[in-house]
Amino acid sequence: MWLIQFKMHISSTGLKLSKCLYVLDGFPNRVLDHALETLYKNEDEARFFIVKPLRSQIFWIEKHIHDYGLAVNSEDVEDLKNDANLSRATITLDEFCSICL
Fold first, then answer.
1. 3 CB burial (10 A radius; 0-12, 13-18, 19+)
2. Which of 65, 66, 68, 95 could hold 91 in an S-S bridge, CB 3.0 to 4.6 Å?
3. pLDDT tens digits along 54-70
4. Which of 3, 45, 2 is nearest to 21 (CA)?
5. pTM given for the model
6. What is the rounded end-to-end Cα distance, in angstroms, of the chain?
7. DSSP string computed for 54-94
8. Contact by Cβ (8 Å): 10, 4
């Protein structure tokens, strides 16, 4: 029984983490995927990321890019252009909080 509860807890944290990461505009999917993998391996850090303010999350991603040498390349530029072409609406702070919390 405890194993089922543990798996449900992990998947809940992972889902919240994924939602928080992939609403961050301006970062290539490759970078967000790498951040998700890194955070998912450390549940405490993942939970802390989820409750951080938006500006702090963005700072964390920028530091993550620097720390792991995830420089932007031509594929990333194309990825960002494709995201912009999807005409994703900018979300409000309330919407962001409802997604992440």
1. exposed
2. 95
3. 999 999 999 999 999 99
4. 45
5. 0.70
6. 26
7. HHHHHHHHHHHHHHTT----HHHHHHHHHHHHTTPPPPPHH
8. no
